[in-house]
Design goal:
The structure holds two protein chains of two kinds. In chain A, 35% of the residues lie in helices and 23% in strands. By secondary structure, chain A is of the alpha/beta class. In chain A, helix 6 (184-201) links the parallel strand 7 and strand 8 (204-208). Chain B is mainly α. Chain B has helices at residues 30-43, 61-77, 88-98, 112-149, 156-166, 171-193, 201-240, 243-249, 254-292, 297-307, 310-336, 342-374, and strands spanning 8-13, 16-20, 48-52, 80-84. Chain B has a four-stranded mixed β-sheet with strand order 1-2-3-4, covered by helices on one side. Chain B has two domains: 8-98, Transcription Regulator spoIIAA (2-Layer Sandwich), CATH 3.30.750; 147-374, no CATH class. Classes of the chains: A alpha/beta, B mainly alpha. The interface between A and B is medium-sized, with 26 and 31 residues.
Chain lengths: 261, 376
């Protein structure tokens, strides 16, 4: 049976964006963005360079307040006039894998992963070591805890960043271009890892990417943004989007130059 | 729940206990469960333990770590342990951390031979630094001489930008600190000299100390803190971002492109700031002279002009020129020495200030000896 793209009426979505407008000053980057993410789904946000993917991510993780519209995490509004304390509490419920992995260079990999656990959880100190080992084993970095980020390859850094993003078992994981800068094999391994984590932990994911093989491999749903309309031009399962008659979507999925706006 | 424990305890036979966890094993209650479990083990003396997870709604990462901790405690006490109805995913994660940890690399013991080896490495490292700095300075001098013949190659705009940054923008802080320095020095001198009725000699002491020693050194230390560190941080960040590699690959010489405008700007700004510090330090002294020694501004200045010769001012300016060059070169050198990562930039910036100040004091000592033998 064909599934409809989730919206705010479909059960209790983990994340819901309602008529979201985002920009910097007078410059509106995205307007009226609407979508929801159901528990356990992997949603990819696609689009060419400059279409607002990273801006959307910044809004979703609370780094950029939206100009208009609302963001809900499990039905609870996390945008608008939210106090600093409430925002800090929300941030403990989300995990973010940054494009550069953003590991702290002066800390070892294990210390990087332990940081949020020590600071923001009630886990007994004796167990922190085991939780860190578990997270590192999950991302296949067992035995690398004592290494520094500068000792690791790009792919390993991303996996370490993923372990840190998942340190507190977040309700939703945001990944910013997880396969950027990786070779095709490492990129495929990263996709496989995201799928495994999604399957074993049931973790909901929003992945910002423009890597076509990744999109086809990991997405339950995809949302395509476009600069010309400053918003969503298509949403649905990626294999359906691939057949879309819209010339902009077609151009993206078939690696063709964008038709003139 | 029994006796306030966060789990239910059943005792089907003597020595055998079943712990039933009805609440989630999560970050929120792992601590309480762990404390309860330790309390239970202190009070009871089980010979075997069954952990029943059939009614546990959720087990997260902290829950897995808790199960692993229970395993460890049972291994240590030689208790028989069985997990009942453990969810397959939890079992999978538990086996992941059950795997033996790779042994931590052993640290060799600190023997005399090892101490000598470490000392040797330190000496070699220091020698490498000296050789590296010598080569760096040599390259700077070679390109400076070359650009004297090809002035069009020199990046004038860049140099003017750094002149403003390191010179004009530092004027207020140099004025304030030198003024206060002159004020404090004159005040301390006045306390002593007043006892002998030698108030007027405060002007002599102050003007000589400021122009020959304090203004050049003090200004150079301010410049090391302001500009030397800024150069190191700027170049270090460029290195981390691979901008230096890009410039080198494009065919630019880094000494000419990066170092020269900065160091030449500092070599112009250094003496000018020192003159400015001479002026402001003496101003501080005059204020003390007028308000605490009953001297007039004219009398104070007349005494200064009678004792101060051009030689005193010039020796100070020569020092400041060399100090500025050292601070600039060390700042840039430290920037180029940056490794990878933000922490390396921080380390090199600190090092730029520390080595800069060390170089200033060391050079000042050498100048003192040289000027003494030259009779300046």
């Amino acid at each position: 049976m064909k599934k409809d793209f989730p919206d705010s009426s479909s059960g209790t979505p983990v994340l819901c964006l309602e008529k979201l407008t985002i920009g910097y000053g007078d410059n509106v980057v995205l307007k009226d963005v609407d979508f929801c993410v159901n528990p356990g789904d992997i949603v990819t946000v696609l689009g060419g360079s400059g279409c607002g993917k990273s801006t959307l991510l910044k809004a979703m993780i609370g780094l950029l307040p939206p100009t208009k519209g609302r963001i809900f995490l499990r039905g609870e509004e996390i945008s608008g006039n939210v106090s600093g304390r409430a925002l800090a509490e929300t941030r403990k419920r989300i995990g973010v894998l940054f494009q550069s992995a953003a590991l702290i260079g002066s800390l070892t990999i294990a210390e990087n992963v332990a940081l949020p656990i020590i600071e923001f959880s009630k886990a007994p100190p004796k167990m922190v070591h085991d939780i860190v080992r578990l997270k590192l084993e999950m991302v296949k970095l067992g035995g690398f805890g004592d290494y520094f980020p500068s000792d690791l390859s790009g792919g390993m850094k991303k996996r370490a960043g993923l372990a840190r993003a998942m340190a507190l078992d977040p309700e939703i994981l945001f990944c910013d271009e997880p396969s950027s800068g990786l070779d095709p094999v490492t990129s495929a391994e990263m996709d496989q890892l995201l799928l495994e984590l999604n399957e074993s932990l049931g973790i909901t994911m929003v992945v910002i990417t423009h890597d076509l093989p990744s999109i086809m491999t990991i997405s339950d749903w995809s949302i395509m943004l476009d600069r010309s309309v400053r918003g969503i031009i298509a949403k649905g399962p990626p294999d359906e989007l691939q057949k879309s008659p819209d010339p902009r979507v077609h151009a993206f999925f078939h690696r063709q130059p964008t038709p003139e706006d | 729940m029994e006796g306030g424990l966060p789990f239910e305890v059943r005792r089907p036979s003597a020595g055998e206990y079943i712990l039933v966890f009805n609440a989630p094993l999560s970050y929120d209650n792992a601590g309480a469960v762990w404390e309860g479990l330790n309390h239970f083990l202190r009070e009871e003396n089980p010979s075997s333990l069954v952990v029943d997870l059939s009614a546990t709604p959720r087990i997260d990462s902290a829950g897995i770590a808790l199960l692993r901790a229970i395993q460890r405690i049972c291994e240590r006490r030689r208790l028989e342990l069985r997990f009942e109805s453990i969810p397959p995913s939890a079992l999978h994660f538990l086996t992941l951390i059950e795997k033996k940890e790779p042994p931590a690399p052993e640290k060799p013991p600190l023997t005399t031979a090892r101490l000598i080896t470490l000392l040797g490495f330190l000496v070699l490292h220091a020698w490498d630094e000296v050789v590296g700095f010598y080569r760096f300075c040599r390259e700077f001098i070679v390109y400076s001489i070359r650009d004297l013949h090809h002035t069009r190659r020199f990046r004038w705009n860049e140099m003017l930008y750094y002149l403003q940054l390191t010179g004009a923008n530092a004027m207020s802080i140099v004025f304030l600190l030198s003024f206060l320095l002159g004020l404090v020095m004159a005040f301390q001198a006045a306390v002593q000299l007043r006892q002998f009725g030698a108030n007027i000699y405060v002007a002599d002491l102050l003007s000589l100390a400021i122009t020959r020693e304090l203004a050049p050194v003090f200004t150079a230390i301010i410049v090391a803190g302001r500009s030397g560190s800024a150069f190191a941080a700027e170049i270090g960040t460029m290195k981390v971002n691979e901008e230096l590699d890009a410039l080198e690959v494009m065919g630019f010489n880094l000494a000419e492109f990066i170092t020269m405008p900065k160091v030449i700007a500092l070599m112009i700004a250094g003496p000018l700031l020192t003159m400015w510090a001479n002026f402001s330090g003496i101003m501080g002294g005059i204020v003390v002279g007028i308000f605490t020694l009953d001297l007039t501004a004219y009398g104070f200045m007349a005494e200064i002009f009678s004792v101060l010769s051009m030689k005193d001012i010039i020796t100070g300016l020569i020092k400041s020129e060399i100090f500025a060059m050292l601070v600039g070169l060390i700042g840039c050198f430290r920037g180029f020495e940056t490794g990878t990562g933000a922490d390396s930039v921080g380390r090199q910036t600190t090092s730029a200030v520390v080595s800069g100040i060390f170089a200033i004091i060391f050079a000042d000592a050498i100048f003192t000896v040289i000027f003494h033998y030259l009779g300046w």
